[in-house]
Amino acid sequence: EARVQFFSKGGTFSTDFDPTGSSPDTNETVYYTLNGTIPTNSSTVYTGPIAITNTVQVRARAIVPGLMPGELRSECYLKLAATALPFKSDLPVVVFHTFGGRTIPADTKQFAQIFVFEPKNGATTLTNAPDLRTRAGINLRGSSTLGYPKHSLSVEFWDDYDADKDRPLLGMPADSDWVFYAPNNFEPVLIHNPFMHDPSRQIGRYSPRARFVEVYINKNGGP
Q: Nearest to residue 9, comparing CAs of 131, 110, 137?
């Protein structure tokens, strides 16, 4: 099967670099895109280093004439601004990047790349490799809180073809559908929901698991 290898896994970076994709078969031609579309035999041909200078999703596949296209591969590279390099948190950190999708819809899924960083030695930094990186579809969640500046989100993890894909998250069992709940003025102490879910599970009833995280959403594009 025609396939593509990325020598640099997706993650964060602060200086320009080359992810260097290749195909192990010299009869194959690697096509790639940087605009989020699926590469075809009319896309750019990989012939040498790709300079990564900003946040970008690189999508590539190998094609052999007369055969079906090879497996689609996507990697996302998130550029950190200088001010983000010293950032630390005691909590896991989740970064959503929508590549300039300035308005997150409520009724349809919008593409986003998600990076999840967990604490190492008691602190979370964005310069470590992400513990989870995944493509996803996101939309606003809520009714009376739908227009709040601090969004609650419905999140569906996606594979390279925008189909839902189960993945574990922060020690919770694998699933494709997740809720990122943003506490608001209806919950001033910020812990009502996870507090009540926990004793429900302890007495043997079903209740969703919960983790506290810091969430950052880049809707403008860039670092």
A: 131
